[in-house]
Amino acid sequence: MIRVRQLQQLRPIRVALLSALIAFGISVAPVFAADITTPFMGKAVNGGTVTHEMQGGKHMLTVSSDFQVPGSPDPHWQVVDSRGDTYLLDRLKLKDDKINRTITLPAYIQDIAKVQMWCAWAEVVLGEASFTQPIAMK
After folding, report:
1. Could you tell me the pTM of the whole model?
2. What angle do CA 78, 130, 76 make, to 5 degrees?
């Protein structure tokens, strides 16, 4: 009998703690959530997405594992901000057939609305993926 009473007395405390943990989890979850684009669509890149994350105070973009590297001669990362300004970034293909799957965004970019794969040799967009809302960089 004593055990049952003790457990009954602790029940309001357990409910309050559980409620607090759930509320904390809901308020903190969006801070840690990664932003993901729509799948790439374009002339040479169709499929795969880009994930935006903060790592060590820096904004990072990473292509998904199902992303197919285009066969064009000089593909690059390119981002477009909410005003339509484009920023040509790093090469996608590196020496010895290595792929630059993750890039760090420069501090001068204010926000990102789209990610493009750009062929610097042919000067054409190979594929484009959009975020549902522009990602602020500040």
Report:
1. 0.74
2. 20
